[in-house]
Design a protein that fits this description.
N-(1-d-carboxylethyl)-l-norvaline Dehydrogenase, domain 2; 45% helix; alpha/beta; globular; single chain
């Protein structure tokens, strides 16, 4: 892996030449901004398809931590025999991690994957809108926020679109592609082609709070949390009942831990604010766990406990 400040040099094709290429040829390098769980997963997936990735972590001191966590994730896959050591090496060879936001200029696509906070996302896109070429397509990995509102701070509202990846990104075969009010058909078609390159089944969504997956799953998880808080059943029994009763691969509380309880609460607050429906109001137990720093798998404890790498 390259040093944290080592951004690979690339030759940028002229745009008239670029327009004559198909989507796979157009997308030679992707920039992912945000090196948390989702950003790492998105980067790993893209690099596994033979595309170079620059992963940008905001804080310089966290660059090496992001690298370590990415390697630990792949080591766990190797231990489960779902990845080979050579595949890991290939992914790492295509991935550069840096704290230099100016590296966004090298992306044919720029994917934002920072916290689910509208102000933070708008601030980021305002900044990179000035850095990147005017033709560069911007993608936001948001689960509930308005694509139109995010895009409004840029000079390329037609070239900004949402791709809602689900965690773990390399394993979940679905991605939601969300159009903003001004997203062009050309941007949508290229993004759909990109999803196919990633071997994702894409569903088209027209902007509305929560899209499909978030809006459907949040009330179920929220109700499961109320059942637990009210002492009706234990976390284990709630998840067992839903898994066996409805043939789900994962129970709602384990799913909440996988999503991240902080991210889940942000989704709920957005839906409650936008739609005003009581079913989206976060359960008090969720707020309690988030305040305690028990955020699920990523912190080792949420509704369940998870062993952390030594």
């Amino acid at each position: 892996m390259a040093d944290q400040n080592d951004v690979m040099d690339i030759e940028i094709l002229g745009r008239s030449e670029l327009d004559s290429l198909d989507s796979e040829e157009k997308i030679q390098k992707v920039v992912v901004i945000g090196a948390g769980t989702m950003g790492q997963g998105i980067s790993q997936l893209i690099a596994s398809k033979g595309i170079d990735v620059i992963l940008i972590e905001r804080y310089k001191e966290l660059v090496n931590i992001a690298k370590t966590k990415l390697e630990e994730t792949m080591n766990a896959e190797i231990a489960r025999w779902t990845m080979t050591e050579s595949e890991k090496k290939a992914i790492l060879s295509r991935t550069t991690i840096t704290s230099d936001i100016e590296a966004a200029v090298y992306g044919d696509l720029v994917i934002e994957s920072i916290n689910e906070d509208l102000k933070s996302k708008r601030n980021l896109f305002t900044k990179i809108d000035k850095i990147c070429e005017k033709e560069t397509i911007f993608i936001t990995n948001t689960a509930a926020l308005s694509i139109t509102e995010i895009a409004s701070v840029t000079e390329r509202q037609d070239k900004l679109i949402g791709m809602h990846f689900l965690n773990p990104v390399p394993k979940i075969p679905l991605v939601e592609i969300i159009r903003g009010l001004k997203t062009s058909n050309e941007t949508y078609e290229l993004t759909k082609d990109f999803a196919e390159i990633l071997d994702k089944t894409a569903v088209e969504v027209f902007e509305y709070p929560g899209y499909i997956t978030t809006r459907v799953i949040v009330p179920m998880i929220n109700e499961a949390m109320y059942i637990l808080m009210e002492g009706v059943a234990s976390a284990e029994h709630i998840d067992t009942a839903i898994k066996l009763g409805y043939n789900f691969s994962k129970g709602p509380l384990a799913l909440a831990d996988q999503i991240g309880l902080d991210a889940l609460m942000q989704w709920m607050e957005t839906l409650f604010r936008e739609l005003g429906d009581i079913k989206y109001r976060p359960c008090p137990l969720l707020r309690k766990l988030v305040r305690a720093g028990h955020l699920g798998i990523k912190t080792g404890r949420g509704f369940f406990e998870y062993p952390q790498p030594q």
